[in-house]
């Protein structure tokens, strides 16, 4: 089955809040800087906002997808509840799956981060100094929706591919270390 994002997810805008860096805050204000280049959580995330009534309706829920729609780096991150309560900055559009029995949040994240999808989103972005992907572009984005079983398989294969990449990188590092060690050893003979 193929459908559009608007049929499988509700979209919300992140919010702009003038955050303070003084101590004592209890709400996390998630921004692009909270992910590294490999899209892993940064290790130094601290709450930046005071709890206020106006923030409650913007609290993220487990399984929300944060799509960076402003700037040049359009990536999707899965909110796993690690930092809670949290709100997303206005750089993000939040996608909340309507029916988790139809689409897995991790599958939607995978699809949004797929090179073919990021290419479509980048081409549709508007502006030069601060490119923006509009809500309409996201809502109209087509997505294949296989069975939950196939979605799980896709995610498992993606995980294995990432592990294989890490192993290849480690093998290359060890090979380089051995090579340099042998050259140094040769120099001392």
Number of H- or I-type helical stretches? 6
Strand order of the largest sheet: 2-7-4-5
Q: Which class of the largest domain in CATH terms?
A: Alpha Beta
Rounded to an integer in angstroms, the radius of gyration calculated over CA atoms is 20 Å
The total domain count is: 2
Which ranges are low-confidence, i.e. pLDDT below 50, for 5 or more consecutive residues?
A: none
Any overview of this molecule?
The chain is an alpha+beta fold and 189 residues long. The chain folds into two domains: 2-145, DNA methylase specificity domains (Adenine-n6-DNA-methyltransferase TaqI, Chain A, domain 2), CATH 3.90.220.20; 146-189. 39% of the residues lie in helices and 16% in strands. The chain contains six helices and eight strands. The protein has helices at 5-8, 53-56, 105-113, 115-124, 135-140, 148-188; strands spanning 2-4, 9-13, 28-30, 65-68, 76-78, 86-88, 92-97, 142-144. Strands 2-7-4-5 form a four-stranded antiparallel sheet. The protein has a two-stranded antiparallel ribbon with strand order 1-8. A hairpin with a 7-residue loop joins strand 4 and strand 5. The protein is globular, with a radius of gyration of 20 Å.
